[in-house]
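Reopening closed ticket. The problem is back. First fold of the pair:
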Amino acid sequence: MKIAIVYSSKTGNTEELVNILCQLFLLHDKKPDVYKIEDFPLQSLQTYDGIIIGTYTWGDGDIPVEMLPLYEAFEHQDVKRIITGVFGTGDRFYPNFCGAVDEFRDMLFVRTNLAVTLKVELAPQSSDIKNCGKFVELFLTRLRNCDLVMI
């Protein structure tokens, strides 16, 4: 199973969440390829069995501008078989909490095999670790189940 985590982080909160998720994947003997969005080759989407997107939310619930090419790549490539997940950080002060996660979720649900989403307020806290663990477990369960179906 080939897994990638592709993310963007403005304040470091989303990057911190990436690091937590990577540690949790290692507990399951999985080591995802991790890319900052500017380093991810968009043409390689189909080389992965699973892709997890990490994003912060900008403005009034918008996807950050640097993440738009990734969003569009999912819209224009044949990615239905790819298991996906999306997570992000945001501030409940704003009316559309983690709106970028919602935007990606809605598109991924239609275009891919969306397994799981996760929203974290601001920086990850120790109380978020349990939800991060569930995120990783649900993602890996979907990957394993799809492998069984494809055989």
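Second fold of the pair, where the issue appears:
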Amino acid sequence: MKELVNIASIKENEENPRYIRDPKFKKLVKSIKEFPEMLEKRPIVVDENMVVLGGNMRLQASKAAGLFEVWIDKAIGWSEQQKREFIIKDNVGFGEWDWDILANDWDSNQLIEWGMDLPEFETDDLNEVDNKDISDDIDSLFRIEIELENENEQEKMYNKLISEGYKCRILTL
């Protein structure tokens, strides 16, 4: 059921393993600003609770473009498995993947069946790692959490840190 709704009523899907890096995201925002009518033909897919199943990046880009309303299509009566399957199948060809979320929360055989290209590892290499004590080879990982006032500040800080060579990912809590 397609309808035009207030953008604030839609909830981003925190478990969506897909994202678009900054240059492509800026292009998406520009595209939406220039031609917002296209969103009616490619609405954001949500479940009964208004959680995004397809279109997380379009939702974020629509907000960044200053839209107050967007088109949605409600998937009513879908099982949790159908919702999870849609999230992957809808995003197979676009953006980039968060491999940590995929590795921890998704079945790799199912992802392959749905058309995803997963990195392949040689089993000899994996067995070698399994049988080797690598505790001395593990590098420490250090993180810092920065609280910012709004998305604009977050984007500026992200761009600054990326330009300085830091590995970053955007989180909204």
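Update: turned out to be a display glitch only; the data is intact. The helical segments are 22-34, 38-41, 56-64, 80-89, 99-105, 108-113, 123-130, 151-163. The two ends are 30 Å apart (CA to CA). Please close again.
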